[in-house]
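Hi U.,

Before I forget, here's the chain from the pilot set. I'm dumping it here mostly so it's searchable later in email.
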Amino acid sequence: MISGAAAPSFESDVRPLLQKYCFECHDEDTQKGGVNLAGFTNAASLLRNPKLWETTERQIRDRAMPPAKKTQPEPGELLVLLDGLGEVLDHPDPQWLPWNPGATRPRRLSRTEYNLTVRDLLGVTHQPANAFPPDGGGGGGFDNNADTLFLPPVLLERYLAAAEEVLAGADAAHLQKFPPAWYRTDRSAAALNLRWFLRRAWRRPATDDEVERFLRPYARARSAGTAFLPALKSSYQAALVSPNFLYRTEPVPPPNAPGSHGFPHVGDFEWASRLSYFLWSSCPDDVLLDAAAAGRLHDPVVAAAQVRRMLADPRARAFSEQFAGQWLGTRNLTLKSTPDGHKFPTYSPALAAAMMQEPVEYFAALIRENASLLRLLDSDFTYANRLLAKHYGLTNALSATPSPAGTAVDPFVRISLPDRTRGGVVTMAAVLTQTSYPRRTSPVLRGKWLLEEVLGTPAPPPPPLVATLPPDDQVKDDLTFRQRLEKHREKAACSGCHNRLDPPGFALEQFDGIGAWRREIDGRPVDARGVLVSGEVVDGVVALKDALLARKELFVRHLTEKLLAYALGRGLEYYDQPAVREIQQQTVAAGYQMEAWVLAVTASFPFNHQRLAEPEAKGAAK
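Structure:
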């Protein structure tokens, strides 16, 4: 419970409110949607069906239930409902709901992870995985999800070619630590080098049997007259096409392994890989591997120190690129958006590249500065190069900002903003462009994006055979595009969704289809006024930011769900929600600091434990 007050009782505080607002549609007689809430009479009974109650809590929190046409709880009543349900779900009696860290499946390295791993392992700048088939997007919307990282047959051939390619371009320092001249036989030097290489490539120490097995390609090459280092590369190539390199796997610990709530801790080397691929999208470095070898990563102080060290490392830029780019949907802007060149003549590949880079630079800056998560919603600065600053009308601000010495011709620099019409991810051109159509903006798409990706309160899908809207925003029959959209909303089948989607989207109408500021649409003044389902009036982007900040707990909760899904490489389940709320509470208590947020994820129960088998709640209803 975030407020810190005494928790409401389910029996005396929460259930009467459920009876007042929910039982009309969800009692034993009605059971609308097949849901009967009246049959749950105490806290223990809730935990016989925790998935249902996690969904119920989310529906109430999102204001999706009770439906808009029904009587709504007062603000104080709403807090009682949410706090009371959250207290039961966050602190369950293990007799009814055992803790569950979720399944950890073998996970193939994604294309990004492959490229960054061979970079750090071999010192190469080439990115061979760019020629691999695209990765899918899985649970949480991220491409590191184990369930979507399949292994198509064509990829097996690419792996062999990629291993040969990266080894050919590797520097000798990344291939050989123990020169053969130091040892009695070349084979002993080869074995030592291979053991050293496998520890880094496989992210754990290799067994003696594994070293012997992977020495065979070296021995065959030497027998054929190949020199020492090229022969050693033969063994390295075999190691790089081994599942031990291509997959992140976690061995099943013995049943009596130490842990909590009946679940064993993740092993030190496996935890090191979890952390490095979370923050760097790459393999653990020697510092992290040495800490794992010493068995020190289960010490919370040591683990937190490693997190801080890795966040400060340049390799942590991958965290900003992968997490921020995929959460916002801006990483592949050029594949998603094709603005019409006649309508938007200033749009170009160079501008699109700058648009995609802005959220990465911005998110990375928040990490560096340990800034507040809320700066993602509103801030007095951004990062831009000269092309993007011109697009934003901020050339004067850029001129007053000195470029760092030795940087690129058009570097990205921090720019102080003159007002609140920019600042935060909502006003970034990449977001505004991808939520537009080729010839016009889309209040519907922008509202949908805000509800789903900022607040985590998605609207229901549109009904089938819904009427389409015009492809441009020209005045037609003396009606502006907005007026035509409002007529569309009058239809009963459309009003339910559009009443939620359109108002926040209207507040962004001051930005055109590629995110530039505008005052008119086809000669008519921009109307950026909307009324949210709560009855709150928002007129323009500044009022929208205020409305989002007023809902900061929804934002932090949703973003925490995203971050935990990204860290775990899987979609979240109902049993992850106690961990989500605990991470959120720790983040809020730390003043929304980015570092505290990341630390809370790495210290969370699912990040630190393994599941041996699917647990079943004792006493659960059959």
